[in-house]
Design goal:
This protein is of the alpha+beta class. 17% of the residues lie in helices and 22% in strands. It has 2 helices and 4 strands, in the order E-E-E-E-H-H. Strands 2-1-3-4 form a 4-stranded antiparallel β-sheet, with helices on one face.
Length: 78
């Protein structure tokens, strides 16, 4: 059996002014609002600006599941 596919969905924002990384609408370091957003849709991490309108709609409609993020990550490989 084993693991056939494993993907992690995470958001990453990068401030173009100072390079701060995290998830924010305005930079938590310098207050800048020129932000590059990186998201995973269809199995690939991509810069949000280059998404098709359909992929942008998918990102907009996603819900964040806070409960899962607090669980420890355990991976069983056989």
């Amino acid at each position: 059996m084993g693991v056939h596919y494993l993907g992690f969905n995470f958001s990453l924002d990068v401030c173009q002014k100072c390079g701060e990384k995290g998830v924010f609408d305005a930079c938590i370091n310098c207050g800048g609002n020129s932000i590059t957003r990186i998201r995973r849709v269809s199995g690939y991490l991509e810069i949000l600006d280059y998404f098709t309108s359909e992929k942008k709609a998918e990102v907009k409609n996603r819900r964040k599941n806070n409960g899962i993020q607090k669980l420890p990550l355990v991976i069983y490989v056989t």
